[in-house]
């Protein structure tokens, strides 16, 4: 009984600390001053969705489901925005990564 309670509390603590780490919002830096600058810098037409995010904080706190259902952002662009969001949190300067050209048959 006691061991299961400790395990339960440990798991809850780990989940809580994971959630807090994910919710961190970096400050704009360098040439990136607002949402539109960030989405232009990462490319792939993501800047067309700049109006969907009201603030810098909303860009870093909006989850994938909300981006899909409420904002109508297509899957590929949504995943690209989410991946660049994490890279930016880790200090990476945003740049456009071009899509690979399709293979010739």
From TrEMBL:
It comes from the Eukaryota. It is found in: Mitochondrion. Residues 35-91 form the Small ribosomal subunit protein mS41 SAM domain. Signal peptide: none annotated. Keywords: Mitochondrion. InterPro entries: Ribosomal_mS41 (IPR039603), SAM_Ribosomal_mS41 (IPR019083). One of its GO terms (cellular component) is mitochondrion. Belongs to the mitochondrion-specific ribosomal protein mS41 family. PANTHER family: PROTEIN FYV4, MITOCHONDRIAL, SMALL RIBOSOMAL SUBUNIT PROTEIN MS41. This is Small ribosomal subunit protein mS41. The lineage of its organism: Eukaryota, Fungi, Fungi incertae sedis, Mucoromycota, Mucoromycotina.
């Amino acid at each position: 009984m006691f061991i299961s309670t400790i395990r339960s509390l440990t798991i809850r603590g780990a989940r809580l600390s994971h959630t807090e780490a994910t919710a961190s919002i970096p400050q704009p830096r360098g040439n990136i001053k607002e949402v539109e600058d960030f989405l232009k810098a990462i490319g792939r037409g993501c800047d067309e969705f700049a109006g969907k995010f009201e603030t810098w904080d909303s860009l870093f706190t909006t989850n994938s489901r909300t981006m899909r259902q409420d904002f109508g952002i297509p899957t590929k662009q949504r995943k690209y925005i989410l991946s660049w969001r994490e890279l930016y949190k880790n200090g990476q300067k945003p740049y456009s990564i071009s899509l690979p050209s399709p293979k010739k048959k």
